[in-house]
Amino acid sequence: MVEAKIRPFDDLIAAYQEYSARYDFIKDPVHLYEPVGYIMKQGGKKIRPLALLMVQNTFNGNINSGFPVALALEMFHNFTLMHDDIMDNAETRRGQPTVFHKYGINAAILSGDVMLVEVTQLINKCSRENQTGQILELFLQTAKEVCEGQRFDMDFEQRETVSLSEYLEMIRLKTSVLLAASLKMGALLSKSNPTLCETLYQLGINLGLGFQIHDDWLDFYGDSEQTGKKIGGDIIQGKKSILILTALQDLDPVNQHKLLNDYKLKLNDEDKLAKIGQWFEQLDIKNKVSKRYLSYQEKCEAIIQQMECESWQKNKLREFVTLILDRKY
Amino acid sequence: MVEAKIRPFDDLIAAYQEYSARYDFIKDPVHLYEPVGYIMKQGGKKIRPLALLMVQNTFNGNINSGFPVALALEMFHNFTLMHDDIMDNAETRRGQPTVFHKYGINAAILSGDVMLVEVTQLINKCSRENQTGQILELFLQTAKEVCEGQRFDMDFEQRETVSLSEYLEMIRLKTSVLLAASLKMGALLSKSNPTLCETLYQLGINLGLGFQIHDDWLDFYGDSEQTGKKIGGDIIQGKKSILILTALQDLDPVNQHKLLNDYKLKLNDEDKLAKIGQWFEQLDIKNKVSKRYLSYQEKCEAIIQQMECESWQKNKLREFVTLILDRKY
After folding, report:
1. Which fold has domain A193-329?
2. How far is B84 from chain A (nearest CA, A)?
3. C-alpha–C-alpha distance, residues B242 and B165, integer Å
4. DSSP for A241-281?
5. Who's near A279: CB < 8 A, 6+ residues apart?
6. Helix (H, G, I), strand (E, B), or coil: what is residue A167?
7. Torsion angle of alpha carbons A272, A277, A282, A283, nearest 10°?
8. What does the DSSP assignment read for B110-154?
9. Considering the entire predicted model, what is its pTM?
């Protein structure tokens, strides 16, 4: 394979968008499939399609077989959003009404269901065409884990305390496994050796954990002009993010109790953020969580360094890691 | 194969129940899987497992490979109930609280989702073990059609009129295809020839249509002591069953309008049933729908007669048809 065939990320995303635009989401009965078309046309960062196509492009060069799988992964991601938005009672997503809000709960449930089936059909077709039943098995295992992650997340909201390791396991399931599966599927489609497939999976797990921890960090320490979100949304909502969990871990039981009480207080937003911000400052949470997030970046780098492949291939992976982790928004 | 291995239906259901009782529905996170175990232990007639095992037992003798597929079909059926009960706002099913009512909407959505994935995993495993990718493809196609049927059913509730052919297409999708797939999967697992597989599928379609039409008929003309249900529930709720659709088909536009108005009237139950019962009597609906339902029984018999198999095998299929169609409840 010659390096010349390697395409910039923007180019891969554009090729995916072109493929996706030709796909016929809306069929009869139109009330069933219209919400599918609606959510699929809403945008989003296309991280999972890019992960798959980038690996295929880097380790094989030919991405044609990857488009339907990339589409299926993006569709699966959107299926989870469609159902999660009902559970979270979310009114908007990507600046537009959620499916649940626009079409009603029943439509969001049923259109999500049919989406999950159509995703599985797409993956099964590609698995058969590429003679890799592994892709289907990996997809089903991943889909189950994503449901498990969502359940843990819902359970944690009801619980007084959650340990850091429980939190990390939750985000591994809810966020990391789908990114890891996207990278691994790219490798499976490229007929890469099992070691490379597994290494890319592990890269995806660590990248996903780093991504989510960074996301939690940005919520309070990010620049609201860059994130486009109100600072401290998680704290105002009383969500169990890595910031509060790290703080709790570093306190004795008496102070844990005090912080938890403050975290639950019904104050106006400004006072609440000031109060919790004080705790965080005392406990050096900004740096501690930043270090933790950087440790995942380092794990990704260590995984890439040990891989047995060309240095330009490693650089492509590094470029992807940077894209996912170095965002300011 | 010797006929001696052929087992009575009760025996097949008991063997299925024994297999199902050993299956581990409840895993961690327990809040995700507990509702799955709850609905799977609630009972039900086990029509789909019986359909599959009966075909396997009749055309092959060995039902061991059928149990996991039978379980997956029953689990899929229960997944549809779990989500449909949210959409119908149903409080009880099989005399017990629905999952939605007992565990909440969010649990019913998410546990249904994971159920659908687990069903697909089971079917995929069996498809691979039996080297019949057709089973998985048939399952996915069926799952999609069942969602489409549910959507048509929901759409019809909002519409003023529905034609008989639209109604039949809706119940084909919502009810028949899963029964047809169950019979066909039994034949696929028995390595039957493609003609037999397709014939059993067609038998299931007609049997399912007959079953559903009979169900609608029993709602008003059944014996409430035997059905255990209040007479005329569909009419009281204003549901578009085959009774009202047949009546409308036989009227001129002016009288259609009158009947539709009566059907929408908010009267006490007794008066409503008396009013609509009068229309039905004038139009001879009891006999007309009865004839239609019998015509599907005849179609089933015609399909069985034309099959190329032993007469004792045909009799087994007849026994199954009778079991499904001749119920008084």
Report:
1. Farnesyl Diphosphate Synthase (1.10.600)
2. 9
3. 10
4. -HHHHHHHHTS-HHHHHHHHHHHH----HHHHHHHHHHHHH
5. A247, A259, A262, A285
6. helix
7. 100
8. HHHHHHHHHHHHHHHHHHHHTT-HHHHHHHHHHHHHHHHHHHHHH
9. 0.95
Residue A96's DSSP bridge partners are: A93
CB contact under 8 Å between B113 and A148, yes or no, is no
> Which chain A residues are closer than 8 Å to B98 by Cβ?
none
List of residues 6+ apart from B68 with CB closer than 8 A? B122, B125, B126
Maximum Cα–Cα distance across chain B: 63
d(CA A216, CA A293): 10
Query: Token pair for residue A290?
Result: 């930043």
pLDDT in tens, chain A (329 residues): 444 488 999 999 999 999 999 999 999 999 999 999 999 999 889 999 999 999 999 998 889 999 999 999 999 999 999 999 999 999 998 889 999 999 999 999 999 999 999 999 999 999 888 877 899 999 999 999 999 999 999 999 889 889 999 999 999 999 999 999 999 999 999 999 999 999 999 999 999 999 999 999 999 998 877 766 778 988 998 888 999 999 999 999 999 999 999 998 888 999 999 999 999 999 999 999 999 999 999 999 999 999 999 999 999 999 999 999 987 65
How far apart CA A302 and CA A317 sit, in angstroms, is: 12
Task: Report how far residue B242's alpha carbon sits from residue B295's, in angstroms, rounded to the nearest whole number.
Answer: 14
Distance CA B301, CA B203 (A): 9
Closest-CA distance, B145 to chain A, in angstroms, reads: 9
ipTM above 0.90, yes or no: yes
**Could you tell me how many CB contacts below 8 A there are between chain A and chain B?**
99
Residue B92, strand partner residues:
B97
Q: What are phi and psi of A93, to 5 degrees?
A: -150, 135
Asked if domains A1-191 and A193-329 share a fold, the reply is yes
| Local structure of A92: helix, strand or coil | strand
Helix ranges, chain A (H):
9-22, 30-40, 47-59, 66-87, 99-103, 105-129, 133-158, 164-171, 177-189, 194-221, 224-227, 233-237, 242-249, 253-264, 269-282, 285-306, 311-325
- SS3 assignment, position A95: coil
Domain boundary assignment for chain A? 1-191, 193-329
Closest-CA residue of chain B to A111:
B147
What residues of chain B lie within 8 A of the CB of A83, using their CB?
Answer: 109-110, 113
B1-192: CATH topology is Farnesyl Diphosphate Synthase (1.10.600)
Residue B61, sorted as left (phi over 0), alpha (psi -120 to 50) or beta, turns out to be: left
| A78 contacts on B by Cβ (under 8 Å) | none
Bridge-partner residues for A97, per DSSP? A92
Please check whether residue A213 is in contact with residue A293, taking contact to mean a CB–CB distance below 8 angstroms. yes
The torsion angles phi and psi of A193, rounded to 5 degrees, stand at -70, 155
- pLDDT tens per residue, range B126-162: 998 887 789 999 999 999 999 999 999 999 988 988 9
Nearest to A325 by CA among A295, A285, A280, A304: A295
Distances (CA, A) of B290 to B198, B216, B218, B294: 27, 10, 10, 6
Q: Which of B301, B239, B249, B305 is nearest to B272 (CA)?
A: B239
Q: Which fold has domain A1-191?
A: Farnesyl Diphosphate Synthase (1.10.600)
Amino acid found at A155: D
Of B28, B113, B117, the CB nearest to A83: B113
